[in-house]
Amino acid sequence: MGFERKMHPVLADDINILLDDLCSEWDFCAGVRAADLLDGVKPLTSKKFTDAVLDAETELPGQRAAWERRIKRKFVQRYGHEISTKTYYN
Question: Would you call 14 helix, strand, or coil by DSSP?
């Protein structure tokens, strides 16, 4: 099973799709949701997203640096290095 590529028209819902993919594919299921990450006018960066996902996990399956690269890469592939509700186009 691969990551979901279809983009949702609402950014928060689309970020939740990506988070669900991380849960189903890599077992990062600590309950981070888009509402926790989106801060009004500030863009969500790949670093902030990655840190939030990894910080929420109590136990990482392997080294953090390796997971940082993998999760950041998934975010960048989907949104670029940052995304906001103002700049989101599906």
Answer: helix
Question: What's the whole-model pTM score?
Answer: 0.89
Of the CA atoms within 13 Å of residue 22, those in its CB half-sphere come to 28
Do 38 and 32 form a contact (C-beta atoms < 8 A)? no
In a domain, 20, yes or no: no
Give a yes or no: residue 85 inside a domain.
yes
Torsional sign, CA 8, 10, 11, 17: negative
Instruction: Domain of residue 81: give its range.
Output: 39-90
pLDDT per position as a tens digit, 27-57: 999 889 999 999 777 899 999 999 999 999 9
Q: 44 has which bridge partners?
A: 83
Main-chain phi, psi angles of 12, to 5 degrees? -55, -40
